[in-house]
TrEMBL record:
This is RPEL repeat protein. GO terms for cellular component: nucleus. GO terms for molecular function: transcription coactivator activity. It comes from Aureobasidium vineae. GO terms for biological process: positive regulation of transcription by RNA polymerase II.
Amino acid sequence: MSDEMPPSSTNPISFERRNSLEKAIQNRPEAHELRERHILLNTNAAPALQAQQQELQRHKLTDSLNKAIASRPEKDALVERNILPDSTAAPALQNHQRELAAAMRRDSIEKHLQTRPSPAELIKEGILEANENPLDEP
């Protein structure tokens, strides 16, 4: 037993570990920096009361969210105000439904533009006067 050396005095591993811990302690951030980075709690309460304070804040937040959810408008009101789409399709298909509706509108507009009457036809039908030409710029 007398042959054993105390681990802290001559053991090179513990000496290196000790030096690294000392350096880490020297570079350790201050308490206010840790509070700013939300690592330490920013509270004036005693450590024994901090858990209760956190629980109280959690309950306040829960109550606030429950109140907001209770006053949330119904789905029908949101559909009336065009906030939600009026769709009976599954949510996964609603995007495809919107794309299909837009494509159908584009096709309809293109069809109407292709069958659009010429200015001569409009003059013949009495919709335009002979001196009016919508293609001429003023």
